[in-house]
């Protein structure tokens, strides 16, 4: 799988690999990529299989497949180990990769994500939504999701963020998004493995997140001993875009903190 990706910053900088969520693309991480690259990090932001500029013929893509794609990309770029971050589905892919390839990960960012399984109803809803968007496309689905993706405060004060989020969702390839939903419905429960994570971990969540509320982030924080929890006030499910200054400062403080060993 040849992933489309951006590679910003000096080639010999500390590598940071950031994984976008559903139904987005690598531009979701543009503020953080530029911020960290200016500070000497090498920041790699790929489009996952079936998203953005990366094509797929899959009808179902498991999170293990996404994780293996990322490891192949890291191998291609010569990154033996890296800081690994993900948001929402991207965070679940990060947990999968950490389980499968723990020696590759130097530190973690888990943003607005949750480790547990779906309820039977939520699992079925993923299958149903996959069938629906494969048939009708992304536009109506995107319009329905948008009010839950970002907070009311963001929608009122940041039309630029709303427009960016809407564009990413509407432009997501319907086949790739449907395949990911089907695979995600069958993901394992990552909760038992959290206590085995022994690298520094930053857990971030928007205070107004409806999809993965603060309680989900608190659970992750409790289970990972070497973790720090940051709640971004006024943000919804995408604090890295809604409140990028607060998010960037928290990430920078984490990466330069005493608990992080390069």
TrEMBL record:
Pfam families: Abhydrolase_1. InterPro entries: AB_hydrolase_1 (IPR000073), AB_hydrolase_fold (IPR029058), AB_hydrolase_sf (IPR050266), Epox_hydrolase-like (IPR000639). Residues 15-243 form the AB hydrolase-1 domain. One of its GO terms (molecular function) is catalytic activity. PANTHER family: MONOACYLGLYCEROL LIPASE. This is Pimeloyl-ACP methyl ester carboxylesterase. It comes from Amycolatopsis pretoriensis.
């Amino acid at each position: 799988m040849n992933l489309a990706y951006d590679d910003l910053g000096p080639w010999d900088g500390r590598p940071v690999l950031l994984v976008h969520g559903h139904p987005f693309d690598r531009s979701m991480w543009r503020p953080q990529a530029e911020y960290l690259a200016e500070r000497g990090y090498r920041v790699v932001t790929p489009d996952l299989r079936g998203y953005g500029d990366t094509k797929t013929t899959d009808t179902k893509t498991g999170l293990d497949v996404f994780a293996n794609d990322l490891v192949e990309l890291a191998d291609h770029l010569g990154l033996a180990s890296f800081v690994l971050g993900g948001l929402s589905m991207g965070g679940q892919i990060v947990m999968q990769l950490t389980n499968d390839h723990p020696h590759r990960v130097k530190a973690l960012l888990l943003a607005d994500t949750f480790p547990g399984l779906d309820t039977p109803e939520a699992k079925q809803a993923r299958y149903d939504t996959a069938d629906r968007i494969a048939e009708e496309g992304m536009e109506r689905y995107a319009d329905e999701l948008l009010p839950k993706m970002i907070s009311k405060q963001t929608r009122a004060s940041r039309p630029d963020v709303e427009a960016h989020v809407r564009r990413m969702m509407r432009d997501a390839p319907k086949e790739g998004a449907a395949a990911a939903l089907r695979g995600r419905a069958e993901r394992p429960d990552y909760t038992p493995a959290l206590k085995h994570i022994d690298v520094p971990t930053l857990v971030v969540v928007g205070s107004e997140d409806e999809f993965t509320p603060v309680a989900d982030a608190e659970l992750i924080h409790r289970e990972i001993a070497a973790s720090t929890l940051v709640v971004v006030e006024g943000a919804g499910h995408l604090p890295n875009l809604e409140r990028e200054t607060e998010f960037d400062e928290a990430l920078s403080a984490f990466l330069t903190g005493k608990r992080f060993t390069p």
